[in-house]
User: Fold this.
Amino acid sequence: MRTVRDLPVEGARVLVRADLNVPLDGTRIADDSRIRAALPTIRYLRERSADVVVCSHLGRPKGEPDPALSLRPVAARLSELLGEPVAFGDEEGPLRLLENLRFDPRETKNDPEMAAELAALADVYVNDAFGAAHRAHASTEGVAHHIPAYAGLLLEKEVTELSRVVESPTRPLVVVLGGAKVSDKVGVIDRFLEVADRILIGGAMCFGFFKAQGIETGNSLVEGVELAGEALERAKQSDCELMLPVDLVLGREFSAGTERKESDGVEVPEGWMGLDVGPRSAERYAEAIASAGTVLWNGPMGAFEMEPFAAGTRRVAEAVAAAPGTTVVGGGDSVAALNQFGLDDEVDWVSTGGGASLELLEGKKLPGVEALLDAEEETANA
Assistant:
């Protein structure tokens, strides 16, 4: 992909699609990680005297203005971090942030007119929104066909780091997958059964695998039983070892104050639910991570947001942080766990893309990335 480094920047007007979809507490930004991730590309352009128009979505406003989802607080924070004024909305200035793109229903429909209107704001387009690259929207795909298009520094790094895990990992490659739904991760499981050395399964998704084997799961969250069964069959034909928990931490209900007990096996009695992997499972997983040349972690091991059920995720997070090999973490909950345990600076790459990272790892083409490649080819053939 062509990146901003290939762009003759001096005096250019540049439209930058960033991912500024931050969590808000009223008008207060609860976590500015995504704003900080966008800074290198914006700084690169501003230091080279480019006029920059930044655009992004925030939340899901259903195609109409919603004051609770305005990007105005983001403009203020962006100004603080960059140390220069950021014009907002229709205001003029050498650095400007547009209002929430999804206030216009044409954005998510990839409307050609909206794409053309965005393109008219600039001479060139830079996509730095990896977290939205799996969406074919006007600002992520359509605009790239109207003006010269380039990848931002963050998008380039995301594609490079995640692609390396699949295509050229240092071995052994250990993939740690958690979260709630087998259906969300089955594509990634299938891909890594072909390329990984070990896949470690945790979180509520393990109960789909247990149920597929006829193991009692009590009141645990169970989803994707058929998909899990099919994955188990494929694993038997694979050189990759698919590891499941060997013990669990149970609760009566999904609550921090609920009755809690550790189960030596993985059978869950009626009236109980599995809310974390047990200590023996956590140690087995930590040992596998410690011996890895490359680790990919996506999804927590349990309900880590509740302290009585945080130990499994904490142990895995500590193991990933201490691993001597290359470590890559993706998915909002995994990143939140790293932050919660103060380990976010201890891994090699923390991906900003949830759905986008999963789709890239599965081997799917991302519309936002493909549009940049198409634009480069169109320029070469012109």
Notes: The longest helix spans residues 33-47. The chain has a mean pLDDT of 95. The domain at 4-155+365-381 is CATH 3.40.50.1260 (Rossmann fold).
